[in-house]
Amino acid sequence: MYTLNKELLNTKTMVKISVLAVIALILMLLDFPLWFAPSFLKFDISDVPALIGSFALGPMAGVLVQLVKNLLNLLIEGSSTGGVGELANFVVGSIYVYTAGLFYYKDKTFKNAIIGMSIGVLVMTAAMSTINYYIMIPFYAKLFGLPIDKIVAMGSAVNKYVVDYKSLILYAIVPFNLFKGIIVTLVTLLIYKRVSPILKK
Which sequence ranges are marked TM in the entry (predicted)? Predict the structure, then answer.
């Protein structure tokens, strides 16, 4: 099992993680809703720098990029979701980049990168569907005094297949995470070989 080690905590590596986190923050600020998902789900590609960090510096580096990115976002933008959105972003992103990085970092081959990212997308989607169903959405609803039905209605307004709470998860949360994971995977594949030498210096 990959763990946080002394190499990850040296100054040079932490600077790299910080730079990746700032780039991730900029990408996070360029978020937008997708046509099939309620407005509280915003799409961005801020997981790309974290995934690159996970591949180049190790899985925990990717998690740290996600953590710093979300902390910076809270400091700069604040939160319209009481921190729930930022927590969800951290959890979903960390699951993805850690899983993908774990597969790739042990044996750095193109095949392992593909396998790692594919498994990462599936694990992320399954985990976030479960976490949203049982924890995140109920907590968000309770925090803001919203009935679950109102949140479902936000999904129904943009997606005709969303008719109840379970279908919100199945036809909005699941495809949202799959779509995001696939796009982040493709972007990372396109740019990783070009930027990884800089991080490995």
Answer: 15-36, 48-67, 87-105, 112-135, 168-192
